[in-house]
Amino acid sequence: MMVMRLKGLMVMMSCQKYGSNVIEKCLTFGSIHDRLVIAADIAGAGEDQILMMMMDEHGNYVIQKMLETIADEWVVDLIVTVVNRNFFRLIHNIHGRHVLARLQIMLAARGSYIP
Fold first, then answer.
1. Measured between alpha carbons, how far is 100 from 94 in angstroms, rounded to an integer?
2. What is the pTM assigned to this prediction?
3. Mean pLDDT in runs of 10 for the chain (115 residues)?
């Protein structure tokens, strides 16, 4: 229920200190449906917003938590697509490197890698 009230605000909240904590808690303790609503809201914002979140001091934690808590392949594919298109921008950003490291660990556990 709370997640539905935040629909449309996920990206903005993810880039704020306390807002990102709220979104992370929803990802950690929310239902599978809540997690998918959050992922769909962030995905709907577009690749530019996802990249901005990856490079943001607070937003990168939300992206990492999405990788940690959502097993749906489309979420991972979306993040891998954004990473592939913006790899050099991410590798030159401290927060982007954190996302890359988390993604590499997660993909290695699956027996895959960043193409």
1. 10
2. 0.92
3. 88 97 97 96 97 98 96 91 96 97 90 72
Task: Give the pair of three-digit tokens for residue 28.
Answer: 């950690």
Is the separation of the CB atoms in 61 and 95 below 8 Å? no
Q: Closest by alpha carbon to 36, among 15, 66, 65?
A: 66
Token pair of 81 as six digits:
């697509």
32 CB-side CA count, 13 A: 2
CA 76 from chain center: how many Å?
9
- Please report which residue ranges of 30-93 form alpha helices under DSSP H: 32-44, 47-54, 59-69, 73-85, 87-91
Distances (CA, A) of 79 to 6, 18, 34, 114: 21, 23, 19, 10
How far is 60 from 1, CA to CA, in rounded Å?
25
